[in-house]
Amino acid sequence: MSVKKSLLTGIRIVLLGLIIVAGLFGIIGTNGGPTTHGAMKVTVGPNGPWILTNDGAIYEYNGSVWDRKEAPGTADDLAICGTFLTILTRPDSQGKRTVKSRNVFGNIWTTYPSIGAVDVKQVACDGYEPVVITTAPDMYVYKYYNETQSWKSVHDGATEISVMNGRLFYLYPTTARGNVWSRDVDGGLYTRWGDNFVAQKIAGDANGYPWVATNATSNPLYKWDTQNNKWTFGFSSGPVYEMDIESYVRMYILSDPQISGGGYTLYSHELYSGGWTTYSLPSY
Amino acid sequence: MTKVIQNTTQVLLGFIAISLGMFIYIAFRPSWQTVWIPEVISLDLKKFWLCTKLGNNLPSFLHVFGFSLLTAGIIVRKKWTYMIICGSWLFLNLLFEFLQTDAAHTRLRYMSSNHDSLNPVLHWLKNYLLHGVFDPKDIFALMIGAILAYVVLMKTNKGG
User: Fold this and answer.
1) Chain B 36-65, residues with CB within 8 Å of chain A CB atoms
2) DSSP readout, A51-66?
3) pTM, whole model, 2 decimals?
4) Which of A57, A36, A38 has the alpha carbon at shortest distance from A258?
5) Cβ atoms of residues A170 and A181 within 8 Å
6) Which stretches within chain B are classed as H helix?
7) Is the CB of residue A194 less than 8 Å from the CB of residue A230?
């Protein structure tokens, strides 16, 4: 191949540039394309949803994109206690999870004392104080009181909990006469919601009413009909794997489609109007 | 009048090396590891132990070897520049390999968890590093690739 010498320099510069770009692409491009990570847990922070991804990372949605707050492998569950990100760590060598928290704007972790020899399976928040369930067979609900700086058993028996405005909403392990209950988290009378109604997931709203999801794969969401005092159909949806409610405002659920790498898709719905909003998921 | 390609043999050898590296990715690596391989053409032949072992480090060797030959074959004929070209590709590959170490990874985790929104360059770098695994054998393969490329360039040089 021959060309006029005046063109040679330019052609060689272009070729060199293409070779360098191709070489760099060869290095960078062989470290994998970004993988979409599905959500395993969802909670509501001061400015929107936070999720725990399938690899144990924590992300906050800033209105347009996901900001990574914690690296993969950080947590098994999360909740926002006031302005504190509260997590259950992954099990240690003894198989026990630890409750830790940090300011959502900071990076200094506080580790809570362990609750005896038992393991913890879920964390929720009563204001700035964490509330947890221990694993089977106990399934006790413990609350950490900042005043005494200690855990106290506040209820005996729950498979799922949600705490909102001082109310503890929970699913009782025995389902023979329905399993949806609530009570003030610090004590008081129990309320059973509906006869013989068995739910799999629960979230309380700021008005003091529970919203639940059954294990149905289609339309599992129910809300409490305050006029007729019975459960009524909530919103149309696919299966619900996790749910949480932002005050009086909005419900978040994890549902299908499942993400091939693990985890689920995040949706939200205003409690009293509108339709579902689908969120993108972190990709990295 | 003069030639654009300075040394056809070098360019040809470079293309063969790069093509072989691409074939290894298509044949032995899962498609998600590679941006430019669609799943439909990925063979992902994990069952051949030897090929899998070779496939781990051979691409590093072929990358620095192939691109050194390709670069030199197209743009230069002078022997003294071969060292610079091989050294540059070696440096570039080593840089990205060391960015996959735990130390770099930890630093990036800190940076990415303490910025409300990552700047695009950091975000891009994060995607790269999070998928990368530092392998000392890659360092060895890269150095062998650079040395062998220099030897081949000297042997195939046609004056200059």
Assistant:
1) 36, 59, 63
2) EEETTS-EEEE-SSSE
3) 0.65
4) A38
5) yes
6) 8-28, 49-75, 79-98, 102-113, 120-131, 136-156
7) yes
Query: What's the pLDDT score for residue B139?
Result: 92
CA distance A73 to chain B (A): 12
ipTM over 0.90: no
Asked whether the predicted pLDDT for residue A1 surpasses 60, the reply is: no
Q: Does domain A41-278 have CATH number 3.30.428.10?
A: no
**What are the phi and psi torsion angles at B150 (to 5°)?**
-65, -45
Long-range pairs for B19-28: beta carbons < 8 A, 24 or more residues apart? B20/B62, B20/B66, B21/A26, B21/B58, B21/B59, B21/B62, B21/B63, B21/B66, B24/B54, B24/B55, B24/B58, B24/B59, B24/B62, B25/A30, B25/B55, B25/B59, B27/B51, B27/B55, B28/B52, B28/B54, B28/B55
* A62:B117 CB<8 A: yes
Closest CA–CA distance from residue B54 to any residue of chain A (Å): 16
